[in-house]
Design goal:
Length: about 400
Amino acid sequence: MIVNADLHIHSCFSRATSKKMVIDVIAPQAKLKGLQLVGTGDGLHGKWLKIIEESTIPAGDGIYSKDGCDFIITAEVEDNKRVHHLLILPSIEIAYELREKFVSINKDNDGRPSLRMNGAEIMDITHDHDGLIGPAHAFTPWTSMYKTFDSYLDCYGKKPDFLELGLSADTKMADMIKELEDIPFLTNSDAHSPWPHRLGREFNQIEMDEVSFSSLKNIFKRKKIKANYGMDPRLGKYHLTACSKCYHIINPKKAIEMKMKCPECSKIIKKGVDYRISEIATWNKPHHPYHRPPYIHILPLAEIIAMTYSKGVTTKYVQNIWEVLIQEFGNEIEVMINTPLAEIKSIDKKIAHSIEGFRNKTLIMIPGGGGKYGEIKFPEKNLDKYFSKKRKININ
Ligand SMILES: [Zn+2]
Ligand SMILES: [Zn+2]
Ligand SMILES: [Zn+2]
């Protein structure tokens, strides 16, 4: 069976996360989005593990179900060099064991604990417990593996089980690095809220005989991910080199000359993922290995609706249209990629026009950087044609 899996989210116990990030809300939202398998996130947090136990039914081999949505235990941890790692664990019991093994400085204060251990130590303990581990958002400029190291060997001493691309990179970019040719890539949302512009904004499509931890592990081992679905990397928060305070976009070489100090506001400049990859790249164009699945660019439908009607992405107005479309066509992938435009037109002409722009790649992308998401907008001529005045929507 084909399974859409988002394996990196956070619970209500992580910092700056919605109080709605609880199983009872995530499960129905995941289904509407078209996800069948979701990582619980925060799987080392005592209270969260208890909520998972109370709100789900064990469905065998590391799977916990709630109303037709399957969960697998995942966690993100920060190591002693501030590098973030994503862990996928075989069961709740193992998660409880790992809580005791990891030396944490803030256990249960934050869903994403900071460990007094390095990447290699965290990897060894995770592997000793049959878990899977790889760098989270591997290229971002604050807390990623490639921010700190030029090679995964310097971080782990050996090959990670996977690498999470993060919102600001895609396969085309990462496949310029030779050492990654043997590693499966993951595309996950890192959602901090359950709403459809966050949860499942990136996900992995996999084919499983049965949804279980062992079959997921096997898929990584055999590098059998079917497709990566993700945002255009230009829309990520850290795609270009930019100031972390005023978001002024700066030529990366110039930024280095200026010792990463912003000429506008003198705050710190953050190196863009595009430039960081160019620094560590082996080739100047992608060399996709035989096993690399297609990377399909997708945009949250809610962002498209918000842009079309100039409404906030979390407003009831946007939510209502979103629900009508999902009810009619099944899930977001159907609406964004597969449903004939004529059918969408019969429900909402303007949305059909926007989705046409997305499919034809004629929407304009204004790249993000420094911590600010990129923006999408209509090409000017279409704007004039369809709307009375020019609008620019920030997809934050
Ligand atoms: Zn992180
Ligand atoms: Zn995270
Ligand atoms: Zn600045």
